[in-house]
Specification:
The structure holds 2 protein chains of 2 kinds. Chain A is mostly helical. Chain A has one domain: MetI-like fold, CATH 1.10.3720. Helix content of chain A is 73%, strand content 3%. Chain B has 2 domains: 230 residues, Rossmann fold (3-Layer(aba) Sandwich); 121 residues, RNA polymerase II/Efflux pump adaptor protein, barrel-sandwich hybrid domain (OB fold (Dihydrolipoamide Acetyltransferase, E2P)). Chain B has 10 helices and 21 strands. In chain B, the strands form 5 sheets. Chain B has a 6-stranded mixed sheet with strand order 6-7-8-3-9-10, sandwiched between helices. In chain B, α3 crosses α4 and α4 crosses α5. Chain B is elongated and about 80 Å long. The chains are: A mainly alpha, B alpha+beta.
Chain lengths: 304, 394
């Protein structure tokens, strides 16, 4: 009761500027704190760790060793730049193929399916996420193994030669990357297509566009933001991913993600791991920035 | 329906040498067993402003969409300038549409929106530029070309939608409740402008609306649709003054309906008083007349000073008592009860205070014989509730 009686007093007092405008800042505090704690600090400490020297036994000290970057990429015993380029190649191939596979899927669900079937189909797209990432990738290596039923079946049918194999090749790694990332491409494209007002398509047909022109002139431009979001999600995850290349790949498919993982976990060369991941991050940042400049749209925030 | 169909034919008689701009021939459209358009036959003359009016669900939008090519008729044929287009896709029809929601391309500028159709037709770049700029000018959008289409106000988007359709110089322009999303003030100015543009470009307009004022203000002819067919078709004044059915009479405005019986050709009110009325188009024999309709503004009020109140050949007279008076400034609305227990609704100009009446006043109501129109008994479902009429059809 007392609370009710006291309240009008507080309202009568004109709130100060700070009082009226601070709520948004207060609300962003949690997110801001999160970013500071788990993004900015690791980022800086990662950079600092990369400048340390030492070994796993006697420990590492900060010596501002900028040379590590040239050591790793210019004249190194281990071809890190090859691993990096290979990862970028896998990223580009996966992204392009994902668009080619995901766009028709998203288009079909958005435009050709009755409303009651949309949610079940989207669920099917997401179904693979219900199984652990590592497990489902390992299942692929089981299915595609030399003694697995797919390849032995093909061999029995004499469709492939005796030494035919899939595992250990770049194609296997790219295939795994596509499989694991496809929902990240399907969903944003689906959302973008679903948002297109169907009357706009009618307007295009009314204005002398046949099916192909409606697609190229209206549907594709209006779904660009979805493709853009999908590319960001798929490309970044693929380039840094160590799992697909280690489970489905072989000697010739060693990626930068694996290099970072191994130097950190196996060799405990913390400075090398930190330097590699810093370089990877900077390069991804540059590529994404350039990509956003060239193909970006203003309404990206509508989708993600 | 036979009489109204004859009227269609007579009104386009002047253009018999050139085929009608649009002709619908026995067109029926069913959606999963529901008949949206029921054996409709319509003809639009070249250069005509034709308004298709009706409540939501009457089939007017479906009719328009069939002309545009977005729906295929279940049966019947559609001709455009004498050519059968029933089965040709929208992009092969020399018809353009102004959509209710405008449906502008959100990724394109105003200029590119307007140029869209011309580019698909493969017009010359120079011609496109000239035509687009010309039409932006006609619609008062000069200088708006580079702006993104979706950043304009509702009224401006409406103009872009019009320009985008008109720039192609189609044989027929279809307008699907284009004013639906505009507020009342802009709507009025757009109506005037639309009429001017239509006269200027000389293109046949097929205008779909649920707003009777808009249809009467704009249409050279209007067709009032109900249940998939039109119940009346003609010039706005004729349809208003002499509607064919009770539905049409009530849809176009307020209307007093007097129940009558025919006594050897003489119409009599329930209290036995004889009245006269203009024979309606749907009722050629007096036996079919069930009621007489009179518009509220056509009835005149006089103080009852005991003078005789018998109808003559030219004038109908009825005694009544005022029950309510609503003062509206320029006019007053009166509700009256008649000797036979019926109700009358009268709209009177407030010319002098002496002419105003209060509740309980005994009055004499007069109206010219020709202002009463004979109507048949209402058949089938009664008109939809007025609240439903306000909703635009999707």
């Amino acid at each position: 009761m007392t609370d009710v009686l006291e309240r009008p007093k507080a309202i009568n007092k004109k709130p100060s500027w700070l009082r009226r405008h601070s709520p948004p800042y207060w609300l962003s505090l949690v997110g801001g704190g999160w970013m500071l704690l788990f993004f900015l600090i690791p980022l800086v400490s990662g950079l600092i760790v990369s400048l340390e020297t030492g070994n796993p036994i006697s420990g590492y000290t900060l010596t501002w060793n900028w040379h590590i970057y040239s050591q790793l990429f210019v004249h190194s015993d281990i071809p890190y730049s090859t691993f990096l380029l290979r990862s970028l190649y896998y990223g580009v191939a996966t992204t392009i193929l994902s668009i080619l596979i995901a766009y028709p899927m998203a288009y079909f669900i958005a435009f050709r399916v009755s409303v009651r079937w949309k949610s079940p189909l989207i669920l099917l797209v997401l179904l693979s996420f219900f199984v652990s990432f590592v497990i489902r990738t390992d299942m692929w290596s089981f299915v595609l193994a030399q003694q697995g039923f797919v390849i032995s079946g093909l061999r029995k049918l004499h469709l492939v030669s005796a030494n035919f194999h899939i595992l250990g090749t770049s194609n296997a790694v790219i295939g795994g990357d596509i499989y694991n990332n496809l929902p990240f491409m399907v969903l944003p494209i689906y959302v973008a297509l679903e948002r297109i007002d169907r009357r706009i398509l009618e307007a295009a047909r009314d204005l002398y566009s046949n099916g192909r022109q409606v697609f190229l002139r209206v549907v594709l431009p209006l779904s660009r933001a979805g493709i853009f979001a999908g590319v960001l999600l798929v490309f970044i995850t693929t380039v840094g991913d160590p799992v697909n290349s280690s489970l489905l790949g072989g000697v010739g498919t060693y990626t930068i993600g694996q290099a970072i993982q191994d130097s950190y976990l196996t060799n405990q060369q913390f400075n090398v791991a930190a330097a590699l991941s810093t370089v990877l991050m900077v390069i991804l940042g540059i590529i994404m920035f350039a990509y956003a400049k060239i193909f970006g749209t203003e309404n990206l925030e509508n989708l993600v | 329906m036979s009489t109204t169909n004859a009227e269609v034919n007579s009104s386009v008689e002047g253009s018999t040498q050139s085929p009608a701009a649009v002709r619908l021939e026995n067109v029926t459209k069913e959606f999963k067993g529901i008949v949206a358009v029921d054996n409709l036959t319509l003809e639009l003359a070249q250069g005509e402003f034709f308004a298709l009016l009706g409540p939501s669900g009457c089939g007017k939008t479906t009719t328009l969409r069939m002309v545009g090519g977005f729906e295929q008729p279940s049966s019947g044929k559609i001709f455009l300038g004498g050519q059968d287009i029933t089965w040709s896709p929208p992009y092969r029809r020399d018809v353009n549409t102004v959509f209710q929601s405008y449906a502008l391309f959100p990724h394109l500028s105003v200029y590119d929106n307007v140029a869209f159709g011309l580019r698909r037709k493969g017009k010359d770049k120079v011609d496109i530029k000239r035509l687009v700029e010309e039409h932006l000018e006609i619609l008062g959008l000069g200088g708006f070309g580079p702006r993104p289409a979706t950043q304009l106000s509702g009224g401006q988007q409406q103009r872009v939608a019009l320009a985008r359709a008109l720039v192609n110089q189609p044989r027929v322009l279809l307008l699907d409740e284009p004013m639906g999303a505009l507020d009342a003030k802009i709507r009025k100015t757009m109506q005037v402008e639309l009429k001017r543009i239509q006269r200027e470009v000389g293109i046949t307009f097929l205008y779909v609306t649920h707003d009777q004022d808009e249809a009467m203000a704009l249409g050279d002819r209007i067709a009032v649709m109900h249940g998939g067919r039109y119940e009346d078709l003609g010039a706005p004044q004729r349809v208003y003054d002499e509607p064919a059915t009770q539905f049409v009479a009530e849809f176009l405005g307020a209307c007093n309906l007097l129940p009558v019986t025919s006594d050897h050709g003489q119409l009599r009110l329930p209290d036995g008083a004889a009245i006269g009325a203009r024979p309606g188009s749907m009722v050629n024999s007096p036996e079919l007349i069930a009621q007489v309709g009179v518009r509220p503004e056509k009835m005149l009020l006089q103080r009852d000073t005991g003078q005789s109140a018998t109808s003559t050949d030219a004038m109908n007279v009825v005694r009544a008592t005022i029950t309510t008076t609503i003062y509206l400034g320029a006019t007053s609305e009166y509700e009256l009860t008649t000797p036979w227990g019926g109700h009358l609704h009268i709209l009177a100009q407030n010319i002098s205070d002496a002419d105003r009446h209060g509740p309980g006043d005994q009055v004499i109501v007069t109206w010219e014989r020709d202002h009463g129109f004979a109507l048949p008994a209402a058949v089938g479902p009664q008109r939809v509730a007025s609240t439903e009429i306000e909703e635009p059809t999707q």
